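Researcher: Structure prediction, please.
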Amino acid sequence: MTYRFSFMLTQYSDKLMRKVIVLDDNEDILHVVTEVLAYEQFEVRGISASNELIPLAEGFSPDLILLDMRLRDGNGGELCSQIKTHPDLKDTPVVIFTAYQRPTDDFSIYGCDAVINKPFDLNTLVETIDKLAQVNKAY
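Model: Predicted structure follows.
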């Protein structure tokens, strides 16, 4: 299932919306995150299948990708590595969010730009995404 949200208020019409892809196989989390980001003026594409990620990213050209680490049909870390080696996507910031982080885990091996633990504070999530998407938009 793919969620598409892009709410744009008239006062923001001059501002370029930052584009985000969210991949999570938990439909409840996917729905909440896409709704919150849309409310915060992001153009959001939410997907639940890992095989949809690269083709969507190639066509959508996101400013940031948010990946769940453990997926039914893939591994967020491996997907992050694919993004970071893709010629058109390698500079796209990637945030991994996970409920399974242990102190010994090193997510930097995948090339991600940030890690957010589940359960997460929505304000922290938005601030992290906003900061990284802004940096990417500057390029």
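Model: Residues 5-15 have pLDDT under 50 and may be disordered.
Researcher: Thanks, that helps.
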